[in-house]
Amino acid sequence: MNETIICAVGNVATRPVYRELAGGPSARFRLAVTPRYLDREKNVWTDGHTNFFTVWAGRQLAVNAAASLNLGDPVVVQGRLKVRTDAREGQNRLSAEIDAMAIGHDLARGTSAFRRVSRPETAASPPRPEPDWRTPEEETGEAETGEAEPQQPSLSAVVT
């Protein structure tokens, strides 16, 4: 509920790695974000400190990112920021990850050609039976009256 959603603009710093996992497709890459500012004393543009984020994508976003992104591409990534600390080799390390919700090329720095992904046609699945939403009280009420008519819940019964 209280997640930190960010939008990061930078360059793909590592080739995207794609994996088919038990939970579905997954892809990851490193994003380099370097701010530029005008140094007014020298009147030149200067690069600031570069921040690196590991970007994680899942499901169809992972498939599309792996097929679309290349090393050095300018991109815009929107997602959930996760900052972690862990101890490795006796040192505390800080890592920043973005669980991506959207990834796209930065059109301020170039052009891109969008291709909609066509989904494979699947055979029609047999219709599933409607679930039985009756409560135990409704089932006992049917047994008393001997009728099997479904009862509609009143609005006061639905809103708690």
UniProtKB/TrEMBL annotation:
Keywords: DNA-binding. Residues 151-160 have a biased composition (Polar residues). Gene3D superfamilies: Nucleic acid-binding proteins. Residues 138-147 have a biased composition (Acidic residues). PROSITE patterns: SSB. The keyword DNA-binding applies. Residues 111-160 are annotated as: Disordered. Coiled coil: none annotated. One of its GO terms (molecular function) is DNA binding. The lineage of its organism: Bacteria, Bacillati, Actinomycetota, Actinomycetes, Kitasatosporales. HAMAP family: SSB. InterPro entries: NA-bd_OB-fold (IPR012340), Primosome_PriB/ssb (IPR000424), ssDNA-bd (IPR011344). It comes from Streptomyces glaucus. Homotetramer. This is Single-stranded DNA-binding protein.
